[in-house]
Amino acid sequence: MPWISYVQQDDTMTEKEKTVAIPASDKRNDALMDQVFSKCSYFCLYNTKTGKTTFKENPYKATSGGASKLVIQFLADNRVNEIYAVQLGQNAKKNLFILQCNNRIEQ
Predict the structure, then answer these.
(1) Which fold has domain 4-106?
(2) What pLDDT, on the 0 to 100 scale, is given for residue 15?
(3) I need a labelling partner for 39 at 20 to 30 A (CA). Which of 25, 31, 45, 103 fits?
């Protein structure tokens, strides 16, 4: 399945600890990447320095209207630097500035 990475623009990022957020269908390491971003059930948060994986329930999965901005802020509060997703909706893309994720890399 193709996916897109949204990466924080920072020249020193390779030396910093990064937290990657991946929308997940369940809170298990073998869970599939969720097809939706703002309405996913969980976010898998992977710390690149420690190798630790944690799962956070998406508190805005049932929110109607404005969920994207709330989700992006939730990820910022959890110190996310990168997002790997199948796709992001237009509202989520508009709010990536909160995470300073403006480099798009298609895989």
Answers:
(1) Nucleotidyltransferase; domain 5 (3.30.420)
(2) 56
(3) 103
Instruction: For 46-97, write each residue's pLDDT tens digit.
Output: 998 899 999 999 999 999 888 999 999 999 999 998 899 888 888 888 888 8
* Percentage of residues of the chain with pLDDT beyond 90: 46
- Give CA–CA dist 95/16, Å, rounded: 23
**In this structure, what are the phi and psi dihedrals at residue 19, rounded to the nearest 5 degrees?**
-120, 120
d(CA 89, CA 68): 8
Bridge-based pairing state of the strands 19-24 and 82-85: parallel
**What residue ranges do the domains of the chain occupy?**
4-106
Q: Which of 80, 12, 75, 16 is nearest to 49 (CA)?
A: 16
Residue 52 has a pLDDT of 94
